[in-house]
């Protein structure tokens, strides 16, 4: 619903990519909350994604067999990419390209 939730650390590794996504949210006016939440909260999410060094942002299609689908996505679109995930993927891609150029 226009915000990003991430675990405060008990259920995830505080990795570099996760940190970069949190920073991108803050820099781009996207509310981001580091907090504890239940699996039932996750079931009610409009979107879900995981982060990792090689994958960047990877949309989650299902959680425990339950399809994660944004209500604004066209029916039959099971890619798992909703508007927030798409926006953050774009922001992260821009950051990664900028950092790669800087490293050359």
Task: Supply the key terms.
single chain; 104 residues; alpha+beta; D-amino Acid Aminotransferase, Chain A, domain 2; two-stranded parallel sheet; two-stranded antiparallel ribbon; 17% strand; globular
What does this 3D model show about the protein?
The mean pLDDT is 86. The N and C termini lie far apart (39 Å). The protein has a single domain (4-103), classed as D-amino Acid Aminotransferase, Chain A, domain 2, CATH 3.20.10.10. Helices cover 37% and strands 17% of the residues. It has helices spanning 16-27, 39-43, 83-103, and strands at residues 4-6, 32-34, 49-52, 56-59, 62-63, 66-67. It has three helices and six strands.
List the helices and strands and how they pair.
Blueprint: E1 4-6, H1 16-27, E2 32-34, H2 39-43, E3 49-52, E4 56-59, E5 62-63, E6 66-67, H3 83-103
Parallel strand pairs: 1-2
Antiparallel strand pairs: 3-4, 5-6
CA radius of gyration is 14 Å
The proportion of strand residues reads: 15-25%
Round the mean pLDDT to the nearest integer and report it: 86
Number of E-state strands: 6
- The helix content is 25-40%
> CATH superfamily assignment?
D-amino Acid Aminotransferase, subunit A, domain 2
CATH class division:
Alpha Beta
CATH architecture: Alpha-Beta Barrel
Topology as a string of helices (H) and strands (E): EHEHEEEEH
Whole-number tally of structural domains: 1
What name does CATH use for the topology? D-amino Acid Aminotransferase, Chain A, domain 2
How many helices does DSSP assign? 3
> Rough shape?
globular
Q: Uncertain regions: pLDDT < 50 for 5+ in a row? A: none
Going across the major beta sheet, what is the strand order? 1-2
The major pleated sheet works out as: 2 strands, parallel
**By helix and strand content, what is the structural category?**
alpha+beta
- Span between termini: 39 Å
């Amino acid at each position: 619903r226009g915000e990003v939730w991430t675990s405060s650390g008990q259920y995830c590794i505080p990795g570099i990519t996760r940190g970069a996504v949190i920073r991108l949210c803050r820099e781009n006016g996207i509310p981001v909350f580091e907090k504890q939440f239940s699996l039932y909260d996750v079931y009610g999410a409009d979107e879900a994604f995981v982060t990792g060094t090689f994958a960047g942002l990877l949309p989650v299609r299902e959680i425990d067999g339950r399809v994660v689908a944004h209500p604004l996505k066209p029916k039959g679109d099971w890619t798992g990419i909703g508007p927030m995930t798409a926006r953050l993927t774009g922001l992260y891609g821009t950051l990664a390209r900028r950092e790669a150029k800087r490293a050359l």
